[in-house]
Amino acid sequence: MTRLLCIVFRFEWRQLTRQFVPVFALLFFLAMGSYSLYNGKKFVSHQLDGLDSLEQHHRDHRRALLYRFQADTTTAEGKTMAAQAGIPQVVEYRNPPYAAFPPHRLSALAIGQRDLLPYFDIITSKRDVFSSTRTTITNPEKLAAGNFDFSFVLIYLFPLLLMVWSYDIYSSEMEQQTERLVAVQGGHIKRILALKLLFRFLWVCTIAWLLSIAGFWLHRETTGLTVTDALLWLFGVTLYLLFWCAVTWWTVLGKKSSRLTLIRLLGIWFALTFLLPAITNEIVEVSHPLPARTELISAQREEIEHTWDMPVEQLLDTFYINNPQYTTLKSPGDTAHYGNRRFVAYYDLLGRRINRHIKKYNMEVAEHNALLRRLGWFSPVAQMQTFLNAVARTGMDDYLTYREQVGTFHDEWVIHMNNFMLYDKKLDENDIQNLPRFELRENRDQWKKTLLLGFPVFLFVILIFLAAKRKSIY
Asked: Among 200, 325, 372, 381, fewest CB within 10 Å belongs to which?
């Protein structure tokens, strides 16, 4: 077997070096993959620059707040600044905290939905969760088409390279009738064909691996990249190419002409990469459509008007019922229309009312995503895209995890600021220096869930190879 492997590989190498088209195709895909890495790095660098600018503004505004404590009170402007120093509303307005969802892991290789989803949020005591989307202005046509990143090249284009290079490994032998000569001499034609396909598969994998490793190097400026992420990515790349190798092998053993074999392979490629995902999305949209955000925005506006129009006494009574820890602050004199307690009670009740709409909206979104994940098991292409996005932390599940942590931090921030506003206290310099900051936490066992996403594709590979094994050349 080893001798046969060396003979076939040596022959295929000579064929490769003597033909212009395969060499040009390999170089073309190498160049295209390099360009996709450049695009991914450019996108990630843009978001990193935005976060750096946001952090710099945050530091500048904090220094400005601290400067108010040393303002020159001999001037009118200095007296105003000194009087405003430490007021909770001023602190929150001038220097609100922010939550960041930075490019992480291998975002440059698989941008996923990072171009559609906000990657930072400004946190305040106000409850305006629908109308403020922290996204940059982008050409809508580009958003609809998607980014030309490495995952796009791998998912959609690398299968074409493997199929176009391998579709005639048997039909060319059959058309030249050389397979009969091999059979007469006692050769195992099916084993030889398998080794020829293996040679092409390894070459395609080598290009994908080299580009992936180059992507790891380009991603060194971001945080969170681990050996586990790199191994998961290379595993996903190899598994996906192995799937298309199995599809090609099964189609080649159909013993059709070169032209018909190529047409079949291109038809399978189109069906799996475009038609099946489109049908899956259509089924999900019909059975579990995503709720419209415009309805949420309208509901928020109604809640804002209704809550603001409540009598101050009723609003405060509701606040103390919902927050019994502040009952000791209750007094008959809390009727100031623009007092701190009225505003705290207003935003607390508004948040509770809006959260009911959010809960309903999230339930519908969760049902939509759950059905999409279940049907994705029947679409190897969509499943592998989900796998790569999960490795790169650019999928919807990763964003929802971030949003959940933002909600938790928002509640912590509101409680922290209420301790000053409800008691009519000011923040001192030490309080401003030690304001709560958002820290994104990750699940250490995330790699296990990610690895499970590759199981459907692995199962398809086994089934296709078993089906191909039942086929005989003669």
From this structure: 325
